[in-house]
Design goal:
The longest helix has 21 residues. The protein has two domains: 308 residues, 2-Layer Sandwich (BirA Bifunctional Protein, domain 2), CATH 3.30.930; 93 residues, Rossmann fold (3-Layer(aba) Sandwich). It has eleven helices and 23 strands. The chain is an alpha+beta fold.
């Protein structure tokens, strides 16, 4: 991708109405555009990051046997009425031009839809267990939409639903999902903490969240320094500085955190509402046990920015960076500029041939300082500088975004590093 052809441009100043780091840097870098409070457009750079996160999620979900599908965002009133959730506070209801009362809502979650679909395909114990997931936009009427992509009214979520004969089988898969989630967040550059939490509007039982310790986080968790056991403040009886209730040895520390994922044991609440039954080996009819599992895709991107940045901008992990390399072409207005351009073009073409995602800053009329500052803001892992100095030396200047110093190396050596 040539930076000169990218229609978005980095902003010189951070937006004044934003307090969170992710909102400031993602907007300033041209990754997202804020349409209104809690509602954002994913611009080309931001969409590339989201696509990388989504691909990681798909790989790990497919690895545990889940199948991807795509459910509707517009839900008939009958679904939430059946489970008593039609009047939850966060629901966006839809009134058509002909009706006075809302008959639909736009999706905030899909337990009801998932249960009804499953009821059409489950007959006997031979049909269980199975699981399916989607990556889809959700809508929640947040009273306090703030902190950039950490708390939005419209956001992208991966939601997984599993169906089982009994609780034992459900808990087995629950553990598999836990491991898959830990892999996902690790691959995205986040250290997540498995945390006991409440069920909210989803289930009466306790659930689990995946929390990332961060000063900007809206959640408060208590974490054991010895065994790592953690509880959300809303359900915890542990206190800061106290002894861990799980291992009885470690000291408990209070932390602010960002919730990036959650898993819910649902029991038979949704199966009862939609007649989701199966016949067991003895010919008896039983309700299917369900569980649901969510990951905030945009929230994960925002959490990475909160955890991985410096005073200059974002520092993307290579796994989800929009590009792996940025080439910065520095022209001086002298005769050797043609050689600089030819060298930069050659590196750009060679990287593309090798399948390396590369952003080429070929813009004219920009100073070296401006280009370096914008490269740091964008946070791409490897910066390659091509200038009259590097051309004379027969080398390139390589700087890793997470390192302070750059080095002059031969082009062949750079390709070996990659």
């Amino acid at each position: 991708m040539r930076l000169s052809r990218l229609f978005t441009k980095p902003l010189r100043q951070a937006p004044k109405d934003e307090a969170s780091v992710n909102a400031k840097l993602l907007e300033r870098g041209g990754f997202v555009y804020k349409n209104s409070a809690g509602i954002y457009t994913l611009l080309p750079l931001g969409f590339r990051v989201i696509a990388k996160i989504s691909d990681i999620i798909r790989e790990e979900m497919n690895a545990i046997g889940a199948e991807e599908l795509f459910m509707p965002a517009l839900h008939d009133k009958k679904y939430l009425t059946a489970t008593g959730r039609w009047d939850v506070d966060v629901l966006f209801k839809v009134v058509s031009g002909k009706e006075k009362e809302p008959l639909f809502n736009i999706s905030w979650t899909h337990e009801e839809i998932a249960a009804e679909i499953a009821s059409k395909f489950v007959n006997s114990y031979n049909d269980l267990p199975f699981s399916f997931y989607q990556i889809q936009t959700k809508f929640r009427n947040e009273a306090r939409a703030k902190s950039g992509l950490l708390r939005g009214r419209e956001f992208l979520m991966k939601d997984l639903y599993s169906f089982h004969q009994n609780e034992k089988d459900m808990l087995k898969f629950y553990g598999e999902v836990r491991k898959a989630y830990e892999k996902i967040f690790k691959r995205c550059g986040l250290d997540s903490i498995y945390t006991l939490a409440g069920g909210g509007d989803f289930t009466a039982s306790n659930t689990h969240e995946f929390q990332v310790v961060a000063p900007v986080g809206e959640d408060t968790i208590f974490v054991c320094s010895k065994c790592g056991y953690a509880e959300n403040e809303e359900v915890s009886k542990m206190k800061n500085g106290g002894v861990c209730s799980e291992c009885g040895k470690g000291k408990v520390k209070e932390e602010k955190s960002i919730e990036v994922g959650n898993i819910f044991p649902l029991g038979t609440k949704y199966s009862e509402a939609f007649d989701l039954n199966f016949t067991d080996k003895d010919g008896n009819k039983n309700l299917v046990i369900m569980a649901s599992y969510g990951i905030g895709v945009g929230r994960t991107m925002a959490a990475v920015v909160e955890m991985s940045h410096d005073e200059k901008g974002i520092i993307w992990p290579e796994s989800i960076s929009p590009f792996r390399v940025i080439i910065v072409e520095i022209l001086s207005g002298k005769d050797k500029d043609k050689k600089v351009v030819n060298t930069a073009e050659k590196i750009y073409n060679d990287l593309q041939t090798k399948g390396v995602e590369v952003l080429y800053d070929d813009r004219k009329g920009k100073s070296a300082g401006e280009k370096f500052a914008e490269a740091d803001l964008l946070g791409i892992p490897c910066r390659v500088v091509v200038s009259g100095k590097t051309v004379d030396a027969g080398k390139i200047e390589l700087k890793k975004r997470d390192k302070k110093n750059s080095e002059l190396i031969k082009r062949e050596e750079f390709f070996k590093i990659l």
